[in-house]
Amino acid sequence: MIPEPPDARLRVDDFDYALPTTAIAQGPVEPRDAARLLVLDRAASAAGQPALSHMVFSEVGELLRSGDLLVVNDSRVISARLVATRPGGATAEILLLRPIPNESDRWEALVRPSRRIRQGEAVALRSGDRVEVGEAVGDGTRAVRFDRDPYLVMAEAGDTPLPPYIRDRSTSPSRYQTVYADPPGSAAAPTAGLHFTAELLQSLEAGGVARAHVTLHVGLDTFRPLEGISVDEHHIHREWYEMPPETAAAIAEANRNGGRVVAVGTTSVRVLETAVRDRLGSGWTDLYITPPHDFKGVDALITNFHLPRSSLLVLVTAFVQAGMGAGTPLESRDTLLAAYRVALAEDYRFFSFGDAMFIA
């Protein structure tokens, strides 16, 4: 009997790594651009040459050149965490994820304790508003209905939904927003952009580095670990994105003039790749980027250090592989995780308030 070939699919376990809790940043550095920056040169790595170097984020202009285009995600984090009181006095928590299309008063949310709250039960917020918990929507979420404008309710009763691995809640909510944040809608910050200051952006612009924005309202999947045994079993939640015509024009101009499109964060990557795939300027995306992936809209990436067993780590692995010319996804994974091990040995800070990588 001829033996069956081994399963060639990537496994979730392939994207695990040891991370001491002491490496998880509990607060941001000051100023924003004082974060450290680990540079990974994919071409040098493919050639077997030294591929890593260490910088400070304020020096990122040394890695950019006139004609390059920074593409940032300008979504603003909403006060999406609502602490509520149930009719009997018990505490409940609602984490708002996204509006339900065509219904101004209803949102999709994570509700705790979801199993104990029956459909139709109303909970009270500290603002005096009442929120009705409705039916299951999918993937463990519920529909919730507000008695007035949800954004006004959030402004009075909501808290910034810091990630669960951040135990220190003393950081000002403003530090969990980028300096260019504009349209509200995210349940988590596009954290690669947290390192930019207004002064740094002005300096880059003076050096001929242009900036354009896209919007992707970050939802549940940012902190949801990969599901299943194989990477391809995971499912990405839909998130709303927009790429304005002026951003598309700026990308076309950069391409014509030999400039690079530098995505700030994995959320910007997903917008750029979705827009190329779907040829749409806005809509819902569930694009799940796994290696191998033929990147059409991104030449370089600024990103933070990501959670083990996460879709973001898989996306960055795909980007590393795309720039190395050859090699398997696991070899590219090895390249990326080797960089992570160097970062840990050098006391880089990980996750949302942590340090950054520049992958060229």
Average pLDDT confidence is 94
Q: How many beta strands in the DSSP annotation? A: 18
User: From the helix content, strand content and strand pairing, which structural class follows?
Assistant: alpha+beta
Shape: globular
CATH topology of the largest domain: QueA-like
Number of helices: 7
Architecture of the largest domain, CATH level 2?
3-Layer(aba) Sandwich
Strand order of the largest sheet: 2-1-18-17-15-3-13-14-16
CATH C-level label of the largest domain: Alpha Beta
Low-confidence stretches: 1-6
Would you give an account of this structure?
With 360 residues, the protein is an alpha+beta fold. It has 2 domains: 12-77 and 169-359, QueA-like (3-Layer(aba) Sandwich), CATH 3.40.1780; 81-159, Thrombin, subunit H, CATH 2.40.10. Helix content is 21%, strand content 25%. It has helices at residues 42-46, 150-157, 198-206, 245-256, 266-278, 311-322, 329-345, and strands at 36-40, 52-56, 69-73, 76-77, 81-85, 91-99, 106-112, 122-125, 130-138, 141-146, 158-159, 184-186, 210-216, 239-242, 261-264, 282-285, 300-304, 356-359. The protein is globular, with a radius of gyration of 21 Å. It starts with 35 loop residues before the first strand and ends with a strand. The relative contact order is 0.21.
